[in-house]
Amino acid sequence: MCGIAGAYEYKSKKTISREEMGNMLQVIHHRGPDDDGCHLDDNLAIGMRRLSIVDIAGGHQPMYNEDNNLVLVFNGEIYNFPELREQLTAKGHVFNSMGDTETILHLYEEYGLDCVQHLRGMFTFALWDPGKRRLFLGRDRLGIKPLYFTDVDGTFVFGSEIKAILEYPGVDARPNMQALGHFLTYKYAPAPLTMFEGIQAVPPGYFVTVDEQGVRTQEYWDMSFAPSENGIPSEAEAKEHLQHLLRESVEMRLISDVPFGAFLSGGVDSSTIVALMSQILNQPVKTFSVGFKGQGEEYSELPYARMVAEQYQTDHHEVYVDSSDFVNLTEKIVWQMDQPIADQAALATYMVADLASKHVKMVLTGEGGDELFAGYARYAGERFSPYFRPIPQFLKNGINSAAGLLPGMRRPKLALNALLQPDELRRLTSWFPLFNFEQKQRLISPEFRSQLEDEFSTSIVAGQMARTDATDVLSRMLYFDTKIWLPDDLLARGDKMIMAASVEGRVPILDHKIVEFAASLPPSMKLKGMTSKYLLKEAARDWLPDTIIDRSKKGFPIPMAHWFRNGAREMVDDLLLSDTFKKRQLFDQPYVEKLLTDHQSGFGDYSSQIWALTNLELWHRQYIDA
């Protein structure tokens, strides 16, 4: 695990200095405090910061092949490297290290750009082939590890974090207004867009090549919902195979030369991971949980986490968070994120990662179960859409307006707003909103609106719907969530917050073998009636008590609504009522002030929207204004 960065002046042939490379690596020191290194080749430079997890002594990077004619920097873990190593050795390749990094070099020698097809794991890498004067970058299938780049007038710069790219001379930090518009709908910038004009995210399952002819991106993997060639399995067969895949995936991710543990929320996903770790290791697993104290204490899920910890006799650790932690850490969170991601769980993720860093250097986490097996309420909510279609649109509009006048009921109103939309595209977009269509119209200033190409951001959903081979609406929703929501929000938040504490996070449920198997199953095995995540819950029922399996989903609940009315109110007012905020002329200030007033009065819960605007203002001050 580490952070990588580099630059290629493929047109100007300008020599890149060690100092320029050093500045890029220094700003991502938190990603790899154990070691660093760089390779300079006139107009090409690549480097890394290393967090040592496997082959601590022999894993220094950049790494070279045995002929010293290929150079690699790598971030992540290749879990099938022992198998690949054996295959490559049989073909005559000679290894000089014991870890996974060198495997990529020999795969490239053997298969060229197709080497990515053989990798099972989470990764981003940059491989320099001086013979071809070609730079080759790859990102894992699910986007677990981040990778960004910019290409301006023949200057190509890349990094694990955008802040590294901004350190390179000539790269300016300018807001991307289209991405900002989409952020107000989805609470993140959907890839390949970022919130920085001219800087792109490499999408999951893509690789990039750069040579003197220019920059090319190519997809090497996508998610298919076609049934398996072996046909549709019975429920019993599917359960058994899923259990096998989960156990195999967890076992592969326990390869480590340093202490490790797991995040434990008490939900099905993280509890399943802890159960399997306990069975495989046959020793106490170090587990880490977060709870809340003071106002919002009722949001805490610690009793469920403790239930699993007691069942498997884990070495359990807890941390409590309150509004003062939120106020004190908000600026750090926004800085570490690189770009606004209005995910309320960021603080809790950082706090539990910081707790874990005192005991371990690597953790397993539970992301992915909801997106693969239909765990969110919106999937069940979509089942009601046929009943709303016959209602005349003028009546739908009236119902929606009337509902908006009622206090409280945030989630029911969100669902109703989606179900009352005039077509599938607007309805599917409305299941995800930060600001819904009506709120967004009121929020955006005329100056901002004039710059937007897609005010309501339906093009993002439309683009993904056009790509998938899914024929049913549930599978189309799962495709969007796995390709966009998961990497651009949940995994980005997880990577940035966990790496901020210099800890590696591994996500067993997102092994691409599990992803492909889940996608091949019929929708009824994921959402059975109104039971979400059906097959995953049945698979986990052999390992966990029914109390954990059958309890309602809470996600990663944060008492932010309480905090914004109390301990964090002053911070928010100082930002969103400031002259600096107003002078940006992005938003209708009276509407912003109405959101704050309605939230303070208890008329509604606008904590998500307030958190988004707070993120955005702090990001402007840290990255754009600076």
Task: Explain briefly what this protein structure is.
The chain is built from 28 helices and 17 strands.
How many beta-strand segments?
Answer: 17
How helical, in percent, are the residues?
Answer: 40-55%
Spatial separation of the terminal alpha carbons? 30 Å
Could you give a short account of the major beta sheet? 6 strands, antiparallel
Task: Provide the CATH architecture of the domain at 2-219.
Answer: 4-Layer Sandwich
Describe the structure.
The protein has 626 residues and is an alpha+beta fold. Among the domains are: 2-219, Glutamine Phosphoribosylpyrophosphate, subunit 1, domain 1; 235-374 and 476-550, Rossmann fold (3-Layer(aba) Sandwich). Helix content is 44%, strand content 15%. It has 28 helices and 17 strands. Strands 2-3-1-9-8-10 form a six-stranded antiparallel β-sheet. It has a six-stranded antiparallel β-sheet with strand order 4-5-6-7-11-12. A five-stranded parallel β-sheet has the order 15-14-13-16-17, with helices on both faces. A hairpin with a 2-residue loop joins strand 11 (206-211) and strand 12.
Spell out the blueprint of helices and strands.
Layout: E1 2-9, H1 18-26, E2 35-41, E3 44-50, E4 63-64, E5 71-78, H2 81-90, H3 101-111, E6 121-129, E7 134-139, E8 148-152, E9 155-159, H4 162-166, H5 177-186, E10 199-201, E11 206-211, E12 214-219, H6 235-252, E13 260-263, H7 268-281, E14 286-292, H8 302-311, E15 315-321, H9 323-337, H10 346-357, E16 362-364, H11 369-373, H12 377-381, H13 385-388, H14 393-404, H15 410-419, H16 424-430, H17 437-443, H18 446-449, H19 458-467, H20 473-500, E17 504-506, H21 512-520, H22 534-540, H23 546-550, H24 560-565, H25 569-576, H26 579-583, H27 589-601, H28 607-624
Parallel strand pairs: 13-14, 13-16, 14-15, 16-17
Antiparallel strand pairs: 1-3, 1-9, 2-3, 4-5, 5-6, 6-7, 7-11, 8-9, 8-10, 11-12
